[in-house]
Write a structure and sequence with these properties.
Layout: H1 7-12, E1 19-22, E2 30-35, E3 42-46, H2 55-67, E4 86-87, E5 91-96, E6 101-102, H3 109-126, H4 143-156, H5 164-180, E7 190-192, E8 201-203, E9 210-213, E10 220-222, H6 224-235, H7 250-264, H8 270-274, H9 276-297, H10 311-331, H11 333-346
Helix pairs in contact: 3-7, 4-5, 4-9, 5-9, 5-10, 6-9, 7-11, 9-10
Length: 348
């Protein structure tokens, strides 16, 4: 299978008799598990073009800093020239391989608790790093921008638009709910992971403790309510993104936030603590708007033709599911906010 990785790339990392096996998880980079006769197992990746090569400078800075504080993360392996990446038919890099299992869904409170602890420890370890980021994805969680895009689509779409009759009422419901969300308070910028979905954690097969945090290409300056809101909206929804009936499992939420409070301990501000629930609802609404816009425009980089008749239909289901999830979160807002307050009090 040497043809899947260009020979000059293997040569740049001095591998002898390499064998590459594709890793199917993940929708962005092309990723391979590589063994050789002269080095331990490694992970080779060809970066997706949406990421500039300089993102590796950011990844190296953050992983070096948190690793010095005991946080397990894959580390970049420089090539024979001492560089963090090589370019040949794309940008290639090599990471240390780490043992563990990847989970696609949070099925037990124990898993949520361990993921919460790991997220809190990661944020705490990165908190004192001063780094000027070379690459940042602009507008990723710019909720007003995504809502404006949906409003513009609603204003320009006509009855000839595919699935107009089902998409227009959905868009109007999303926008109405967005208008009711309270504004998040100003909270300090933090170094965040940027994509704490559960499949970006490695777990031990024995006790399901987190053994590593993966995929740090999205590290950036951000805010905790948005960072943890994105994590919690995915961890606590047992239905996943491909079901119209998204719900927030309060038991999973409590386990996750209890773990996060234990991992982060005393440095999270009161405003950050109080904004976790609304941050989670806001991200669900934001994603609903993004998926709905994608359905109108018939665009998205990945969809599942095995489960859905069209990309439009898949995005309509995604949007409906995230709207349902946001409503579920808001219907439990008082209880979830009490859970957050109790978790952070107990961690003092």
């Amino acid at each position: 299978m040497l043809q899947i990785i260009p020979p000059p790339i293997f040569e740049d990392w001095n591998l002898l008799l390499p064998t590459a096996t594709p890793i199917p998880t993940g929708l962005i980079h092309r990723t391979y598990y590589v063994t050789s006769s002269n080095q331990p197992p490694l992970i080779f990746q060809r970066l997706h073009p949406i990421f500039k090569a300089e993102v590796n400078i950011d990844v190296d800075a953050v992983t070096t800093h948190v690793a010095q504080k005991g946080i397990a993360v894959p580390r970049l392996v420089p090539n024979r020239h001492g560089e963090l990446w090589s370019e040949f038919e794309g940008v290639w890099r090599v990471l240390t391989w780490m043992p563990g299992v990847v989970l696609e869904r949070v099925e037990t409170p124990a898993v949520a608790y361990q993921a919460g602890i790991a997220a809190g420890l990661f944020h705490g370890a990165a908190a004192d790093l001063h780094h000027s980021f070379r690459f940042t994805r602009l507008g990723v969680h710019d909720t007003p921008r995504h809502l404006t895009r949906l409003r513009n689509v609603v204003h320009t779409a006509g009855p000839t638009c595919a699935n107009y009759d089902s998409l227009m009422p959905l868009a109007e419901k999303i926008l109405r709910l967005a208008d009711t969300l309270p504004a998040l308070p100003h909270t300090p910028p933090r170094i965040v992971h940027g994509d704490l979905k559960i499949s970006n954690f490695l777990f031990s097969e024995e006790n399901f403790r987190v053994t590593a945090i993966l995929d740090l290409d999205t590290v950036a300056l951000g805010t905790l309510p948005i960072e943890m809101g994105d994590a919690l909206r995915s961890w606590t929804n047992p239905m996943g993104e491909d079901d119209e009936q998204g719900i927030c499992d309060a038991t999973i939420f409590e386990a996750a936030i209890t773990g996060y409070a234990a991992g982060s301990r005393q440095w999270v501000t009161v405003d950050e603590q109080r904004s976790m629930v609304i941050g989670t609802a806001q991200i669900a609404v934001e994603l609903a708007s993004r998926f709905c816009t994608d359905a109108f425009e018939d665009t998205y980089f990945g969809w599942n033709p095995a489960k859905f008749a069209s990309r439009i239909e898949h995005n309509r289901v995604r949007a409906t599911g995230q709207l349902s999830l946001a409503k579920s979160i808001l219907s439990q807002q008082n209880n979830l906010e009490s859970v957050c307050a109790a978790a952070f009090r107990a961690a003092l």
